């Protein structure tokens, strides 16, 4: 993801936008999470790059420190919407989308990290079919 962060930062800076990435935050008197929270509160926009894996869901302590539980719920919704679009593509074309397995695995991993059971995950995925219309 490093090369993508660098390229995105380069493009945004050419547009004369202030860019701060993870390298801008150093350990000081405040924790990294406290620094990020203080900085994000002043931002007009925040861009989160999402890689090929969903990573780990933050602990309650980290989520509380950032105060962005709603952002993680929005990430869950966006991940689900992306899978819904892939499933709709398959429904309309009759072909398997080349990234279906990746999108499905990411969504499943995220829901598992959020504490959902396999039955809840299956129900959530089943509810996505036709959800992108």
Task: Please tell me about this protein's structure.
This protein has helices at residues 2-14, 32-41, 60-66, 69-93, 100-113, 118-128. Helix 4 packs antiparallel against helix 5 (100-113). Helix content is 60%, strand content 0%.
The total strand number stands at 0
Mean pLDDT: 77
**Helical content class:** 55-70%
Radius of gyration: 18 Å
Global geometry? globular
**Biggest beta sheet summary:** none
- Unreliable sequence segments: none
Number of helices: 6
Class by helix and strand content?
mainly alpha
* Spatial gap, N to C terminus: 31 Å
Strand portion, in percent? under 5%
Provide the succession of SSEs: HHHHHH
Concise summary:
By secondary structure, the chain is mainly α. The chain contains 6 helices and no strands.
What attributes characterize this protein structure?
globular, mainly alpha, 133 residues
